[in-house]
């Protein structure tokens, strides 16, 4: 069964070439996978990570807008079932430090930002892991997480600060970080955030 889904996933690479005479066939395949929720059955397999990692790599490396939009539909329609697998992947990379899990590991923060833009609910279990990283003893690691969270908290339609107060409070603590670049990044975030979220002014300017 795993081999079958890996084979199906590899077929989606055909979406890269919109001028190919076979493009409509691959587009139809992705459309049906999205609406029928075919990948849900993968969760019954002992190790579904390989399938979903390959799926993410294939879909997010594809720049075709129509295909990308359908990929987003697929993720949105399977949020509740796919979220545990996403959490497991990020747990291995962020908490356990297994950079060998996938080629995606080196792009982990970019992937988090992309998934958050699609549907924040895909990352419900990942946010505590980011809070853990904010408390890292490594200043550069904290800086990387602050830069990521600044984008998530500051984006125009984000309600993350209200939905996840522990993470927000931990993030605010970085304004007093001992690592100067972290403090500078936090201050830079504040001015940008106030433009999109004036309701957070009290948190950002308070004592």
From TrEMBL:
<dbReference type="GO" id="GO:0007064">
    <property type="term" value="P:mitotic sister chromatid cohesion"/>
</dbReference>
<dbReference type="Pfam" id="PF20168">
    <property type="entry name" value="PDS5"/>
</dbReference>
<keyword id="KW-0677">Repeat</keyword>
<dbReference type="InterPro" id="IPR011989">
    <property type="entry name" value="ARM-like"/>
</dbReference>
<dbReference type="GO" id="GO:0005634">
    <property type="term" value="C:nucleus"/>
</dbReference>
<keyword id="KW-0132">Cell division</keyword>
<dbReference type="GO" id="GO:0000785">
    <property type="term" value="C:chromatin"/>
</dbReference>
<dbReference type="InterPro" id="IPR016024">
    <property type="entry name" value="ARM-type_fold"/>
</dbReference>
<keyword id="KW-0131">Cell cycle</keyword>
<dbReference type="GO" id="GO:0051301">
    <property type="term" value="P:cell division"/>
</dbReference>
<dbReference type="InterPro" id="IPR039776">
    <property type="entry name" value="Pds5"/>
</dbReference>
<protein>
    <submittedName>
        <fullName>Uncharacterized protein</fullName>
    </submittedName>
</protein>
<dbReference type="GO" id="GO:0006281">
    <property type="term" value="P:DNA repair"/>
</dbReference>
<keyword id="KW-0539">Nucleus</keyword>
<keyword id="KW-0498">Mitosis</keyword>
């Amino acid at each position: 069964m795993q081999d079958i889904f890996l084979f199906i996933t590899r077929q989606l690479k055909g979406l890269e070439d919109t001028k190919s005479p076979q493009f409509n066939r691959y587009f139809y395949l992705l459309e049906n996978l999205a609406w029928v929720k075919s990948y849900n059955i993968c969760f019954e397999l002992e190790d579904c990570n390989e399938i979903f990692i390959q799926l993410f790599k294939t879909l997010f490396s594809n720049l075709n807008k129509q295909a990308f939009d359908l990929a987003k539909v697929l993720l949105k329609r399977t949020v509740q079932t796919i979220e545990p697998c996403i959490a497991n992947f990020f747990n291995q990379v962020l908490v356990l430090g297994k950079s060998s899990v996938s080629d995606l590991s080196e792009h982990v923060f970019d992937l988090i930002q992309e998934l958050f833009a699609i549907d924040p609910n895909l990352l419900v279990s990942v946010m505590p892991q980011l809070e853990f990283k904010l408390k890292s003893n490594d200043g550069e690691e904290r800086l990387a997480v602050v830069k990521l969270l600044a984008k998530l908290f500051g984006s125009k339609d984000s309600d993350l600060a209200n939905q996840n107060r522990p993470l927000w409070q931990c993030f605010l603590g970085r304004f007093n970080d001992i690592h100067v670049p972290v403090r500078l990044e936090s201050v830079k975030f504040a001015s940008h955030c106030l433009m999109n979220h004036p309701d957070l002014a009290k948190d950002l300017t308070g004592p």
